[in-house]
Amino acid sequence: MTNNDISTEQKILDAAKQVFLENGLDGARMQDIADKAGINKALLHYYFRSKDKLFERIFTEEAQKFMPKVTTIMLSELPLFEKIEKFVWEYIDTLVQNPLLPIFVLNEINRNPKEMMKKIWGNHRPPIDKIEEHVASLVKKGEIKSIKGYELMINMVSLCIFPFMARPIVQWITKTNDEEFLQMMEQRKKTVVKFVIDSIKK
């Protein structure tokens, strides 16, 4: 593949990402993607034969931005409170860089859950067992309050993701512009870490 091919393909992927993020699979049109990429539709079809193939490429790349780093953090041998801090900071940083990502991923997962989860995780479940074991061992030792590992994960993800899912409402209530919202999210990393740790710390 030549540098020109790479450049054209990247233009298509960048354009498709924006169109899919804004419209989802059903609402996106190949002509819209071609127009946004500044190419003709025939050239678009040369690189990607169908909208579904292009969507699958975009969805997989975008969905997997959530997974590898935070999974590595939670499966590491770090102390639990340090894991929580790293998880929250990494998650919110990813959302700041990709603000439409959670809506896009969740919409598509709800639209076709089995197929979309397979695209993200393959034939495996998320590696929650080690997290469950780590949390259970600390509960048993009396080092933290009683909580299930999956409950801890749901709490962290919910606290990270909700302001981005409800961003227009959050900005309206808090009377913040886009720049102020991002500053708020930067501060929120510390707030969420403290809130989660305080909720389980003895």
Mean pLDDT, all residues:
85
Q: Could you name the ranges where pLDDT drops below 50 across 5 or more consecutive residues? A: none
Percent of residues in beta strands?
Answer: under 5%
- Please write the string of helix (H) and strand (E) elements: HHHHHHHHHHHH
Q: Overall 3D geometry?
A: globular
Give the C-alpha Rg: 20 Å
The number of E-state strands comes to 0
Q: How does the major sheet shape up?
A: none
| Annotation field: number of helices | 12
Helical fraction equals over 70%
Structural class by helix and strand composition: mainly alpha
Between the first and last Cα atoms, what is the distance in angstroms?
58 Å
Walk me through the structure.
It is a single chain. This protein has helices spanning 3-27, 30-37, 41-47, 51-63, 67-75, 80-97, 101-111, 113-121, 129-140, 149-165, 167-174, 178-200. The protein is mostly helical. The model has no long low-confidence stretch (mean pLDDT 85).
What labels describe this entry?
mainly alpha; single chain; 79% helix; 202 residues
Write a short abstract of this structure:
With 202 residues, the protein is mainly alpha-helical.
Q: How are the SSEs ordered, and which strands pair?
A:
Layout: H1 3-27, H2 30-37, H3 41-47, H4 51-63, H5 67-75, H6 80-97, H7 101-111, H8 113-121, H9 129-140, H10 149-165, H11 167-174, H12 178-200
Helix pairs in contact: 1-2, 1-4, 1-7, 5-6, 6-10, 6-12, 7-8, 10-12
